[in-house]
UniProtKB/TrEMBL annotation:
GO-annotated biological processes: carbohydrate metabolic process
GO molecular function, one term: hydrolase activity, acting on carbon-nitrogen (but not peptide) bonds
Pfam families to which the protein is assigned, alphabetical: Polysacc_deac_1
Entry-linked Gene3D superfamilies: Glycoside hydrolase/deacetylase (3.20.20.370)
Occurrences of domain NodB homology (ranges): 118-294
Lineage: Bacteria, Bacillati, Actinomycetota, Actinomycetes, Propionibacteriales
Signal sequence region: none
Keywords assigned: Signal
Identification of the protein by name: Polysaccharide deacetylase family protein
CC terms in the record's Gene Ontology section: extracellular region
């Protein structure tokens, strides 16, 4: 463990102590010599300032692909998943040292992929222009093919503000030509869990139909919920693999193919990434005995 890792570990433990003290409150002396069991939770790298429900520490269910989501790769966008080009390249390199990248084009209509080795699927949400202008070249350098979940009703909308600047269809085509998959993320990015059921269907199915028309049925098999908000009632086509966020529990894709967990490399907390990636790797291996004792 190098010096950066030690610092990250110390910060992590301070974070836990502070949280523990808050949770315990006045009923327990702060310095009481509690011996914690070495549970997964104890070793979870907590990201300061992030709500529990948005913590990225949990990876995938054992043996199922780690799925990471990004929004922007841009020098100066501030968002919890927006990375600079340098940090995105570094994050990819660190993840790929432990996980084999999955090619999303291999997701046929029949089989749900369950890889033999720790594997990662890289995804982007919303279809921002920097995905094409900046992330594309970095992905090409490392030979990774990704899924770009695009809001089909927003494609082509341009703005001087990166958060409102979307790819054109031609730019999406260029990503597909590189071997990436462009998939559906609704038409206009509503909170699907807060709108009426009729509009849920229009937004979700409409975007899936838009993708199917341009990129065919394999691409249209993949869908991501805006904000990770999964509505109580949604009727996606049979065989759809639908991706949530860190709000979705880590379960086998075969059990819950329409609420697949994704997690992320938190922006501004790069020192925590090695511990996060270690944790995700342990999650993957948990049931094969090799690294199962933790
Ligand atoms: Zn989104």
């Amino acid at each position: 463990m190098g010096p950066l890792r030690h610092r990250a570990a110390r910060r992590q433990h301070r974070g836990r102590d502070d949280r523990g003290a808050r949770r315990i409150g006045r009923t327990c002396r702060r310095r009481s010599p509690v011996t914690r069991p070495a549970t997964a939770d104890h070793r979870t790298p907590l990201v300061p300032g992030v709500l529990d429900e948005h913590q990225p520490a949990q990876g995938s269910a054992a043996g199922w692909p780690l799925v990471l989501y990004f929004h922007h790769v841009h020098p100066d966008v501030r968002h919890y998943t927006a990375l600079t080009p340098t940090s995105f390249a570094a994050g990819l390199e660190a993840v790929l040292a432990r996980f084999t990248p999955l090619d999303p084009r291999s997701f046929g209509r029949e089989a749900v992929p369950r890889p033999e080795e720790p594997s990662v699927l890289i995804t982007f949400d919303d279809g921002y222009r920097d995905n094409h202008d900046i992330a594309r070249a970095i992905l090409r350098d490392v030979g990774v093919r990704a899924v770009f979940f695009a809001c089909t009703g927003l494609l082509g909308q341009r703005s001087a503000h990166a958060r409102e600047d979307y790819m054109s269809l031609t730019e999406c085509d260029a990503l597909v030509d590189d071997g990436h998959v462009v998939a559906a993320h609704t038409r206009t990015h509503p909170h699907l869990d807060r709108i009426d059921p009729g509009r849920v269907q229009d937004e979700a199915l409409g975007s899936i139909e838009d993708i199917a028309r341009r990129y065919g049925p394999a691409a249209a098999r993949l869908f991501a919920y805006p904000y990770g908000g999964i509505p109580e009632r949604i009727d996606l086509p049979d065989g759809t693999l639908a991706f949530g966020s860190v709000r979705s529990p880590a379960t086998p894709w075969t059990d819950h193919p329409q609420s697949i967990r994704r997690t992320y490399l938190p922006s501004g907390h790069q020192l925590l990434w090695p511990d996060l990636i270690d944790r995700w790797h342990r999650d993957w291996k948990l049931d094969d005995g090799a690294e199962g004792s933790r």
